[in-house]
Amino acid sequence: MSACPIKKTDVTALLSGNLEEERRKAVTEHLKECRECRKDVEDLRRIFEEADAVKGEIREALGSVDWKALPDRIADYVFAQAAAPEKRPSAGERFRAWIFQARLRPVLAGVVMGVVLGSFGMYMALRRPAPRPEAGFQASGEFLDKVELEMARRETVDYLEKSQYVLLDCFGAAPGRASVRSAFNTAQAKELLSKKKYLNPQLDKLRMAKARVICDQIEMLFLELAQVGDGLPEAEMAKIRGFVEDRQLFLKINLVKKELQNGV
Amino acid sequence: MNKIIATVGLVLVLGLGLAAPAFCQASPDEKLFQDAKLLLFDKKWDEALGKLQELMDDYAKSSYYNQAIFYKGECLSSIKGRERDALQAYKAYIRLGDANPSLVEKSEGSIIDLAFGLYENGDRAAVKEIEGRLGHANRAIRYYAAYKLSLVPDKSIATKAVPVLDGIIKTEKDPELTDRARIALMRVSPESLKSVEGRRPAGEEPRMLRIRVTKKGQKEPTVSINIPWSLADLALNAMDEESKSAMRAKGYDINRIMNDLAKSREKIVRIEGEDGEIIEIWIE
After folding, report:
1. What is the pLDDT of residues A91-144, one digit of tens each?
2. In total, how many domains does chain A have?
3. Under an 8 A CB cutoff, do B176 and A193 touch?
4. Which of B20, B176, B190 minimises the CB distance to A195?
5. Model ipTM?
6. What's the gap in Å between the CA of A121 and the closest CA on chain B?
7. Class of the B2-197 domain?
8. To the nearest whole percent, how much of chain B has pLDDT over 70?
9. Which domain holds residue A54?
10. Distance, CA of A203 to CA of A154 (rounded, Å)
11. Distances (CA, A) of B84 to B94, B116, B121
12. Does A70 reside within a domain?
């Protein structure tokens, strides 16, 4: 339409019937040939028709207005509004206004930074600690039981060996100097009697039963001999030695020792 | 048959040994006593108890009467359900004026064992017998009470043993005693052990052996042990068979590991088993 010789004002004047005759003919001739302008005119005509449809309603509404009283009513309303007390802001609005005032902004920034850093710190403190080497001694109860069992195995071997020495020392004393009491009152014999009780719990365990029997017998022999008075005659000493040999106590000690040395 | 001959021999020999001068005829009370001890030697508790009771009933003035009380305790402690009677027998023996020191020490140890057994079976008050011996004048009894108390599962009770265990490590030279005390402290109060071990002069010896075993594909170790260096040999021997065989397969035995570790404190023995298990051992 921009390239066409007619203007929008011509079309508006045409539809409203206010276009001059000569111009009206020119426009009408052009519309016969220009489809684009014809479509614009049709669109505009439709708008005019729709406007005409509500014209009656508008006219009716305007007719209901009391035009004479209207200025007074407007003036009254304006004065009434001016006389009303100013509406107070709510607590939330006042707080927002206070907190966001310019001079508190650095403080506000500091608080926000503190909250962020504090939260991060709490997170770091409360999160599951990362695995790291433990500083103190630690081992499970089960492992400590195994350590004790291993210790008992070694100590039982030691107990049996030392018992052999004590018995041999006792039996090997020179004639006339034999003193069972002195032999069994040595610090070593006392130590053996004292240590035996630590072995008992482990000796009760499976595969140590044989060791327990022999250790118990040695202990009883020690307790017995520890009670014998000084100066046991050589003949009696020989009999005790014979008894130990009959019981094959040294052989049994060696066998149990071997078993224990090869592992429980 | 051999056993019978041998046990008869024991009676004969010990009987003769106890009754000087030799070869004299055994009196009825002595005969009962020797028979009882022979039965004890063969762990025939009920029969031995019968003989001892007969001796005590019929020969109240016998010179064997006092010893019979101790051996009665021995029999009763081995008969199920008679533990409390055994406790009374041992206590009666300890109260005697002329009790033999060796038998007294044995009685005290047996009381501790019996009390621990009763505690394990639900008699909570029995543990007082052990606690009461933590201050015993005889250090062997004191130490044994502390060791036994450390095995009590209730930590509030077990920790009462800490001062005595601590004292053993500080004052005793016998490695068997000190190692046991270390293990007991590890059970009850590892921090106390750390405190004791920390008092060693600097550079004296490495203080801690660390063992980590990590299964293939796992980040966290399945075995994590920090143990005093003095227990290193025991700890390495106490490792499970799987780990030990992995070490052997790579040419490591316990001695080699100990030697390697002892040479350098920075050394880490790292062994990768066939199944991807990684064993790391080092000292600090």
Report:
1. 777 777 777 777 777 777 888 888 888 888 787 666 544 444 556 788 888 888
2. 2
3. no
4. B176
5. 0.72
6. 26
7. mainly alpha
8. 87
9. 8-64
10. 12
11. 15, 12, 12
12. no
